[in-house]
Amino acid sequence: MTEVHSTQAKATLFQTATSERYQRWRLVKDKMVARGVVAGGLSIILAVVLIFFYLLYVVFPILMPSHAEVVGRYDVPEQVLGNTVFLSMEEQNEVAVRFTDTGKAIFFSVATGQLIRVDTLPIPEQVQITSYAHGGVDKGVIAFGLSDGRAVVVKHDYKLSYPGGKRVITPAIQYPLGAEPLVVDKQGQALTKLAVKLGDKNSTLLAKTADNRMVLSSLSKKESLFDDEGTWESTDSLVEMAADDVDFILLDKELRNLYLASRAGDLTVVDILDKSKPEIKHKLNVLNQGVQISSMEFLNGDISLLIGDTSGVMAQWSMVRDQQNHFSIEKLRAFKVSDAPIITINPEQRRKGMLAADANGEIGIYSSTAERELIKEKIAGGKPVAVTLSPRANAMLLQTEDGKINHWTIENEHPEVSWRSLWNKVWYESYPKPDYIWQSSAASNDFEPKMSLTPLVFGTLKASFYAMLMGVPLALFGAIYTGYFMAPSVRQYVKPGVEIMGALPTVILGFLAGLWLAPFVEANLTGIFALLMVVPLSVMIFAYFWQFVPEQTRHKIPDGLGCGSADPSGDIRRLAGFSVKSDYRSLVF
Q1: Residues 6+ apart with CB under 8 A from 34
Q2: 3-class secondary-structure state, position 361
Q3: Which of 176, 277, 268, 281 is nearest to 219 (CA)?
Q4: Residues 288-333: tens digit of each pLDDT
C-alpha cells in the first residue's frame, strides 16, 4: 500500500508540475501574442501615417504656385550682324540661336551670352530677305523668303557628345530641302509673307507675293538608288482669293488646312488636301469692331489658333464638328493679357500652354486646358523684340528694344491642374462642346490631358450602387441561412471565414477579384449567367419533391445539410422544408 500511495503521490506531483509548466508557457504565449498584436497595430498606424505623408509629398507640388525669376541680362550677341527675326534655344537650356534679317545664324551661350559660332546662310548676293516663317517651334525649321521669289529653308540642330565624361553641345545648321534656294514664285516677285511645313516625303511652302498672289508650292521627295538624299519635285498652284489684306499665314502639320487672316479680323480656312486645287472652306470675322489682330500662332498640335489682338486679349479658336458632321470655327476660350497690343505668342512645345507678350513689356504664361493665368511679369527694357520658350518650358529668353537679352527660369510643373479642369466641364480640342472627360495621358506630346474627376466620382458611385444592389440581398439571405438553417458543424467553419473577409479591406478583395475571379468569370460567363436562373429553379423543384421523401430518410440528414420534414401539427413551422429556429443571436451579421 505504501508503494501505491507513493506512486499516486508522484503522479500527482508530476501532473501538478506539468500543469504549472503548461500555465507558465501559456502565459508566455499570451504575452507574446499580445505584444505581437500591439506591434502589428502600431506598424499599421505607422504605415498609414507614412503613406499619408508620401501622398502629401507627391501632391504638394501641385498646390504650389508657378513663378518665374530673372537669372541673367546681357547684350545681344553680335548685334552688328543684323536685327533678330527669330530666337530659339535647345532642350538643355545651354545654347541659343538668333537668326537675323541679314541671313546670319548666331549661336551663343544661354547663361552668359558668349558667342559660340556664326553661320552664314546661302542667301544670293544682291538679294534681300523679305519675309520669314518657322515650320513649328519644336522642329527647328526656319524659312526665309527672298526678294527674287525664292526661299531658303534651314534647320538648327544640336549634337550631344561626352568627351571625358563632360556634356558638350555642338550646334549646326542643316538644309533639309537643299542648300540652293527654292523657286516658289516663278514670276520672280518678292515673297512678302511665308509659311512652311516639312515632312519626310512631302513638304509645303505658301507665300504671298508683292503683287498680292497666294502661291502654294508642294514638294515631293523622289528617292534614287544612286542618291541617298534624293531630290525634291515641286508642284505649284494658286489660291484663288484676294490676298491684298492677308497679314497672317499658317499651315497645319498635317498639310491639310491653310489659315489666312487679316488685321481686321477676317479669318479664312482653305482646304489644301488636294494641292492642285485649294478650296476655301470657312470665312468669318473673329474680332469685335474697332479691334485688330496683332499676332497669330498655332497652339501645340496645330489644332487650335491663338489670336492676339490690339485690346490685349488672346483667344483660342478651333475647328469643331457638330452633330450633323459639319465643321465650324469656334472660340473655345479667351485670356485678358493686358490693355496693350499682344505682339508675340509663343506656344509650349510639349503642353497646351503659351506665353504672350504685349507692347509694354508685360508677359503672361497661360494654360489653355485649365483656362487660367499662371505667371504675370514685367520685363525690364521696354518692348520685346523676340521671345522664346525652352522645349521643356522651364526657361525663356526675351530680347528687348534696348538691345538686351533677358534670361528667365520658370517653375511651372503642373499648369493643367485647376479647380475648373478637375470638376467643371472643359471644352477640349476636337470636341463639339464642353464635357467631363478623363484621359490623363497618351503617347504624343500634342495630347491634351483630360483630368476631370467628375466621371471618376460618378463612376465609383455607380459601381458601388450596382454592387450593393446585387450584394445586399445576397448578404442578408446568406446571413439568415447561416444563422437559422445551417448545421452547427458547417457554421463553425463558415462564420469565421465570413468574419475574416469582413476584416479585410475592400481594396484587397477587389484586387483578388480582379486578379483571380474576373478571369474565371470571363472563361465561364455562360455558366455564371445560367446559375442565376438554374439555382433558384433547382432549389424550388428540390424543395417541392423533398416533402415526398420518406420521413425516416429525411431525419437521417441533419438540419442545414438538407431539407427537414413537414410538421403538420404546426408546433414547429417549416418553410420550404427548412427548419426555422428562434435563436436570433446565431445570426452572422
Answers
A1: none
A2: coil
A3: 176
A4: 888 999 999 999 988 999 999 999 999 999 988 877 778 888 999 9
